[in-house]
Structures are given as structure tokens and as C-alpha cells.
UniProtKB/TrEMBL annotation:
One of its GO terms (molecular function) is oxidoreductase activity, acting on the CH-CH group of donors, NAD or NADP as acceptor. It comes from the Bacteria. Gene3D superfamilies: FAD/NAD(P)-binding domain (3.50.50.60). NCBIfam families: GG-red-SF (TIGR02032). Pfam families: FAD_binding_3 (PF01494). This is Geranylgeranyl reductase family protein. InterPro entries: FAD-bd (IPR002938), FAD/NAD-bd_sf (IPR036188), Geranylgeranyl_Rdtase_fam (IPR011777), Geranylgeranyl_reductase (IPR050407). Residues 2-312 form the FAD-binding domain. It comes from Desulfoscipio gibsoniae DSM 7213.
């Protein structure tokens, strides 16, 4: 047997899973299709302090601290939310990825970059993986396969996991842009600006920002909506110059199964993403710890059957299913809102009481906490959330 574990995908979830398993003495291979870990950057790099804590990252990874947001409605309403404490951190995402990969190597995992990998045969006692690189083709065998190969996971397709309920397509860029308030992000809402998702400006410093947009569906390319967002807000995007562009997709929903015979999925490949923001670092790292825990237990028991590995599904759902399901319910409300309702929503929240609650209890990892507080603050706020926001017209 060549390896105990082959991890396809060298992103944060894959490297963290590999590190934990390798630390227990197992032979682990990470196969990454890009030539450099962490490049190209396909993430806005905005995370909660909680994410850096779970990843045990040094403060040096932090580029900027975010204390609030300007939320722009389709009709021009602006909701400012600000807090004294930093609720989110802008990080060097490439360095974040490299740090995790170096730790995995330090634990004994082997990393191959610039290789394409696909699953060969899954036998009762091993799985074969085929690799292709500039140096040629070869095959390796492993007792366990872990798919950490992103939203378009080949491993997930190989074990007959259904496609995600929804996929968000993104167009993003790092740009030169004057950011007069570098501790405030901009969020843009609206069916004409970002159907099914939102646009963003995340300051890196006073002169640079990460700008992007996501869209649901395939009506038009995300770049079309990116340009519309820029044109609709000349006061924000004036003088913008592109430094580098990127894109990507984010799966939304929950898979009914993230395991199979001798196979586990983790990170975006397991749809471990936030339905409201699309962020996957925090959930992916949580998933990595659970995935590695079940893998190590399976090795100790000499049982890599689908039935035994199903404990991973149970642990994941116990940890995050309620939160994800709640977020999906609120997302569904958002998807059914008209632009007029979004305008009214922003106007409704643009009051000291609601601004105070949002700034105090807003959490990018656990949005249900804020929803609960809003409902608790006023008895009719629950109706406000559960009826597509139409009833708030009576209060404005």
C-alpha cells in the first residue's frame, strides 16, 4: 500500500485534515492541482476572529480589521452598522493556505503540487488514484480517500453524491481604490445588481480593496453584474484600477451524505459553506477536525466501511445542521424579496434600536444568533422575518 490516506485538494480543509491524520503517524499524501498552494486566491479573505483561533494562526496573517458595514439597498438606502470591536478580519489568504500546508508537511504529510488527480477503482481493501502532471502519469493506492477538491468535486461525483442545491458564481478582483473608511465594508443588494446574492467592497488598506459580486442562476455572467454594480455607484468606485481578477463558485445547501466506502468529503466538496455569506473557511476547518477524527477512529478499528464512516455525517450534522438550516430558511426569504421590499427592510433597520442590536449580536459564522435577538427584541419582529418582510410596510 502506497499511503494510508490520499487527500485530493490542498486547500485549508484538505491540509488541516491531512495534518491531524499525519500527526497520528499515518502516511498521508496531499495532491493539489495548482503549482503553488494558496494561488490563485479565490476567496475574499474576510473571516471572523473565531476562524483564526480554530486555525491557530498568528496575528501577522491579519491585514486589516473590519468594524462595520454600509449596506446599500437597490433604491439607494444605506444602512450603516458599526461596532467598537472588530467583527471581522481581512487576512492574507495565500499565506493562510501556505501556513496550513507547511504544518501538514511538518506533521509528516507529503504534498504534490501541479498534479491532476481522479479516482480509479475502489476495492474492498484499497482505492486507486490516478495522477497526471507535466512529468507524466502514475497511480497510487490508499486505504482511505478524502475529497477536498472544491465545489466541482470529482470525488463527490465518483461516489454518486448529488450536485448542490444551488451554486453561486462569483466575479472578484483586488483593486487600487481609495477607501476613506478602511474599517468599513460595503454590501450591495438588489435583483438588478446581484440577483440571489450580493456585491462587496472589502478594504485592504486606505488604497486597496477586494471587490466582488456573486449571482445565483445562469441568466448572465457574473462580470456583467460586476460592471453594473460599479456603474451604479460611481461615488464609491471612482478611480478604481484592477490589480488582479479572479472568480469561482460556492455550493449552497447540505449534502445528505458526505461519506462512502473508504471515502470522505470535506470543505467545499462537502458543501461546508455558509448559506448567507458563502464563506467556507470556518466551516471547512470544523469539518476537517471531524473528518480527521472519524478517519483516525476508522483506522484504529480497522473498519473503513461506509457504515462506520457515516459517523462523520452524524457529527457534522450535530455540530452545524441547525445553524445551516436556519440560514437556508432566511436565505429563502431573501430570495423571494422584491427590490422594493429590500429598500423597506433597510429603511426599517436604519434606526438606533436595530442598529444597536445588529452591531452587538451580528456574527458572520452564526447569523441565527442575530435573528434570534431581533425576534426577542420586539414580539412582532418574528412575523417580520417569517412573512417576506411585507408586514413591515405598516411600521415604516
Amino acid at each position: 500500500m502506497d499511503y494510508d490516506v490520499i487527500v485530493i485538494g490542498g486547500g485549508p480543509a484538505g491540509c488541516e485534515t491531512a495534518r491531524i491524520i499525519a500527526e497520528k503517524g499515518y502516511r498521508v499524501l496531499i495532491a493539489e492541482e495548482h503549482r503553488k498552494i494558496g494561488e490563485p486566491m479565490q476567496c475574499a479573505g474576510l473571516v471572523s476572529p473565531r476562524t483564526l483561533k480554530i486555525a491557530a494562526m498568528p496575528d501577522a496573517i491579519i491585514i486589516n480589521q473590519i468594524h462595520g458595514a454600509f449596506v446599500h439597498s437597490p433604491g439607494g438606502e444605506v444602512l450603516p452598522i458599526r461596532d467598537k470591536e472588530a467583527y471581522a478580519l481581512v487576512i492574507d489568504r495565500s499565506e493562510f493556505d501556505r501556513n496550513l500546508s507547511q504544518r501538514a508537511e511538518g506533521a509528516g504529510a507529503k504534498i504534490m503540487t501541479g498534479v491532476r488527480a481522479w479516482v480509479g477503482d475502489i476495492f474492498p481493501d484499497e482505492t486507486s488514484v490516478k495522477f497526471k502532471s507535466f512529468g507524466g502519469e502514475f497511480t497510487a493506492r490508499a486505504r482511505l480517500l478524502i475529497g477536498a477538491d472544491g465545489a466541482n468535486s470529482h470525488v463527490a461525483r465518483r461516489i454518486n453524491i448529488p450536485t448542490p442545491n444551488e451554486v453561486i458564481r462569483m466575479c472578484a478582483a483586488e483593486v487600487e481604490l481609495k477607501c476613506s473608511e478602511k474599517d468599513m465594508v460595503h454590501i450591495f443588494l438588489g435583483r438588478e445588481i446581484a440577483p440571489g446574492w450580493f456585491g462587496w467592497v472589502i478594504p485592504v488598506d486606505e488604497k486597496r480593496a477586494r471587490v466582488g459580486i456573486g449571482v445565483s442562476g445562469r441568466d448572465k455572467h457574473p462580470k456583467y453584474y460586476f460592471n453594473r454594480m460599479v456603474e451604479a455607484h460611481p461615488e464609491i468606485f471612482k478611480g478604481m484600477n484592477f490589480l488582479r481578477s479572479t472568480g469561482g463558485v460556492v455550493p449552497i445547501g447540505m449534502f445528505p451524505r458526505i461519506y462512502s466506502e473508504r471515502t470522505l468529503l470535506v470543505g467545499d466538496a462537502a458543501c461546508q459553506t455558509k448559506p448567507i455569506s458563502g464563506g467556507g473557511l470556518y466551516l471547512g476547518l470544523l469539518g476537517a477536525k471531524l473528518c480527521a477524527k472519524v478517519a483516525a477512529k476508522a483506522f484504529s478499528n480497522g473498519n473503513l466501511s461506509s457504515e462506520f464512516l457515516s459517523e462523520y455525517q452524524w457529527l457534522w450534522e450535530r455540530e452545524m445542521a441547525d445553524e445551516i438550516q436556519t440560514a437556508l430558511e432566511y436565505r429563502n426569504i431573501y430570495l423571494n424579496m422584491s427590490d422594493k421590499e429590500m429598500d423597506t427592510l433597510i429603511r426599517f433597520f436604519n434606526r438606533p434600536l436595530w442598529q444597536s442590536i445588529i452591531s452587538r449580536y451580528g456574527d458572520i459564522d452564526y447569523p441565527s444568533w442575530l435573528a434570534g435577538r431581533l425576534s426577542f427584541a420586539r414580539p412582532w419582529a418574528e412575523r417580520f422575518f417569517m412573512t417576506r418582510f411585507k408586514k413591515i410596510l405598516n411600521y415604516c
